[in-house]
Amino acid sequence: MAGQSQKGKNAGEGPSAPSSKKLNAFYQASTGKYLSNEIENCLTSSWPREELKECHLLCVGFPPPGIMETCLQGKSFALLSPSFLGSKKIVRKGRNMSAVGDETHLPFREGSYDRILVFHALEYTQDTVSFIEGLWKVLSPGGRIFLMVPNKKGAWKKSGLPYPDLAKPFLFREVRSFLEKNGFTLINNYGIWYGLPVDFFGTILFSGLLKRLSGGGSVGFPGFLIFEAEKKIISPICKPTRTFKKVPANPAVSGIIPE
User: Distance from first CA to last CA of the chain, Å, rounded?
Assistant: First the structure.
């Protein structure tokens, strides 16, 4: 997962990632709805709504529809769509809370956000180190991330995700090591979406099959992996040049109106 320079797409080349429009269509299909529901269950299990009401939240990437109601319960919410995905408009109380930008140079103040969610972003980013360093910097001390990536050992390509060959899948140990080396402590992890036909989820054989497939573990065969990690106060990679206090979310991006 070594970082590389972000390269622009030359004219005539194919897409480097699915667009927000295609991801939106995926989540409207039956397979996408199952995935969205599982993500929502994991999120609400880790971050209860009562807790989120006291938090400033940022999402980087494409937020699954099932989590939006939960996210909008926060003190503030903003969405940064990486340029490779294109825009996705999020409106809250008549205000636009979304913008398109560079995920490796987040345009937010240090310590602005208590919680950051990342979906459909890390697997398309070439400069993964700058990406995670940026997340660390804009999190408040003790802030947490909720990160989803495709599992290299899972059948995630059967989910119907657009342009599956463009996404880089990861092993569980790769992401855990990457987070720990870049200033985070792993708090929890989930394995979701087993790549099975959607109508199989309603059968009585489902739970027994999963038990056999996973060997009793939670990260063996799931299509996607979710990591919840907490920001260490001092990172060996991203040491702040000054002491800072948590400040209200104040994105320095035109089009996002902070609350």
Answer: 36
State which H helix or E strand residue 177 sits in: helix 172-181
**Alpha-carbon 220 to chain mean position:** 20
Rounded to two decimals, what is the model's pTM? 0.80
Mean pLDDT of the chain: 81
Find, among 104, 19, 6, the residue nearest to 60 by Cα.
104
In what helix (H) or strand (E) does residue 112 lie, and over which residues does it extend? Answer: none
How far is it, in rounded angstroms, from Cα 57 to Cα 45? 17
Question: Pairing mode, if any, of strands 91-92 and 95-96?
Answer: antiparallel
Chain-centroid distance, C-alpha 98: 15
Of all helices (H) and strands (E), which one includes residue 232? none
- Kindly report, residue by residue over 91-132, the tens digit of the pLDDT: 777 787 888 999 989 889 999 999 999 999 999 999 999 999
